[in-house]
Amino acid sequence: MTPPEAPESDCFRSDPAASARPRIRIETLARRPEFLAAARADKQGTKAMLVQARHRGDGTDVVRVGFTCSKKVGNAVARNRAKRRLREAARLVLTENGRPGFDYVLIGKPGATAERPFDALQDDLVFALNRLHARSSA
């Protein structure tokens, strides 16, 4: 006797809309001058973070992002936890809401970045990006 066929799961189907969207490539800011250039650009604060955004104007399709937390956030363990949460939120949000040719710096806030629920952290990043992009296109 053969076992019945398992129903086809939705998790293995490809989303045609997802494949039609252009894939944004994300790179990490690593050098101090890149962070300083973003610091001179536009800023938007939220409950969980401060987001700085700068349009590079180099015509590439790359989104670059940097992460930082000062010692006010806490000891090394707390700072690293906050940066890990910012890194994951950026990975999930910037593929949809980031703009090619922009540099973003996400700065953690004491207590709020590490303790805020993750979906609220993502919503804060989306809110900040929408406000920054509205100002840059106006």
UniProtKB/TrEMBL annotation:
<comment type="function">
    <text>RNaseP catalyzes the removal of the 5'-leader sequence from pre-tRNA to produce the mature 5'-terminus. It can also cleave other RNA substrates such as 4.5S RNA. The protein component plays an auxiliary but essential role in vivo by binding to the 5'-leader sequence and broadening the substrate specificity of the ribozyme.</text>
</comment>
<dbReference type="GO" id="GO:0042781">
    <property type="term" value="F:3'-tRNA processing endoribonuclease activity"/>
</dbReference>
<dbReference type="InterPro" id="IPR020568">
    <property type="entry name" value="Ribosomal_Su5_D2-typ_SF"/>
</dbReference>
<dbReference type="InterPro" id="IPR020539">
    <property type="entry name" value="RNase_P_CS"/>
</dbReference>
<keyword id="KW-0378">Hydrolase</keyword>
<feature type="region of interest" description="Disordered">
    <location>
        <begin position="1"/>
        <end position="20"/>
    </location>
</feature>
<comment type="subunit">
    <text>Consists of a catalytic RNA component (M1 or rnpB) and a protein subunit.</text>
</comment>
<comment type="similarity">
    <text>Belongs to the RnpA family.</text>
</comment>
<keyword id="KW-0255">Endonuclease</keyword>
<dbReference type="GO" id="GO:0004526">
    <property type="term" value="F:ribonuclease P activity"/>
</dbReference>
<keyword id="KW-0819">tRNA processing</keyword>
<dbReference type="InterPro" id="IPR014721">
    <property type="entry name" value="Ribsml_uS5_D2-typ_fold_subgr"/>
</dbReference>
<dbReference type="Pfam" id="PF00825">
    <property type="entry name" value="Ribonuclease_P"/>
</dbReference>
<dbReference type="InterPro" id="IPR000100">
    <property type="entry name" value="RNase_P"/>
</dbReference>
<dbReference type="GO" id="GO:0030677">
    <property type="term" value="C:ribonuclease P complex"/>
</dbReference>
<keyword id="KW-0694">RNA-binding</keyword>
<protein>
    <recommendedName>
        <fullName>Ribonuclease P protein component</fullName>
        <ecNumber>3.1.26.5</ecNumber>
    </recommendedName>
</protein>
<dbReference type="GO" id="GO:0001682">
    <property type="term" value="P:tRNA 5'-leader removal"/>
</dbReference>
<keyword id="KW-0540">Nuclease</keyword>
<dbReference type="GO" id="GO:0000049">
    <property type="term" value="F:tRNA binding"/>
</dbReference>
